[in-house]
Amino acid sequence: MLPVAAYLALSAVLFTMGVVGVLVRRNALIVFISIELMLNSVNLAFIAFARQHLGIDGQVIVFFVLVVAAVEVVVGLALIVEIFRSRSTVDIDDVDLLRG
Amino acid sequence: MITPPVVDLTLILPEMIVLGVALLVLMADLWLAPERRGYLVAASLAGVLAAAWVAAGAADGVSFAGMYVRDALTRVGQVVALAATGLGVLVAPEYLRRYNLDRGEYYVLVLTAGAGAMLMAASRDLLMLFLALETLSIPLYVLAAWARGNARSQEAGMKYFLLGAFASAFFLYGIALLYGETGTTRLPDLTSALAQQPAGISAAAGVGLLTIGLGFKAALVPFHAWAPDVYEGAPLPAVAFMSVIAKIGAFVALLRVFPLALGALADQWTLVLGVLAALTMIVGNLAALAQSSYKRMLAYSSIAHAGYLLVGVATATPPAASAVMTYLAIYAAMGTGAFAVAVALERSGGEADRIEDYAGLAGRAPLLAAAGALFLISLAGLPPTGGFVAKLGIFAAAVETGSVGGLALALIGVLTSVISVYYYMRVAYVMYAGEPDQSGGVRLHASPLLNLALLITAAAVVYAGVLPGAVTSFTQQVGALLSRL
Question: What distance in Å separates the CA atoms of residue B136 and residue B306, rounded to the nearest whole number?
Answer without folding.
Answer: 18
